């Protein structure tokens, strides 16, 4: 099911309802410390990547492995993730700080757990 809304340009845009969001638990040493939501595992991984210690630039960032288990399943999505700080764009809103953290991910695979 999709709903239609107007974006800020006035164009009609289809959006999935919040019920299409999936939850992914960040796994560290068997513990699930945080939960990130997204329509896809990659969206959740990008949110998790921004929580990493950021480098001074993307080319200086060291990738770290992150593992996200999709809640309600035994599937663990494995990503290389990295984060960096860069200057906010000139047209940023007033509330946005001058430097922002950006992140990126690269999928490495999926693992299936026998037990959660």
UniProtKB/TrEMBL annotation:
Region (Disordered): 29-67, 93-116
Record-linked InterPro entries: MC1 (IPR008674), MC1_sf (IPR036620)
Domain of life assignment: Archaea
UniProt keyword list: DNA-binding
GO BP terms: DNA protection
Pfam families noted in UniProt: MC1
Protein's job: Protects DNA against thermal denaturation and modulates transcription.
Protein name: Nonhistone chromosomal protein
Organism the protein comes from: Haloarcula hispanica N601
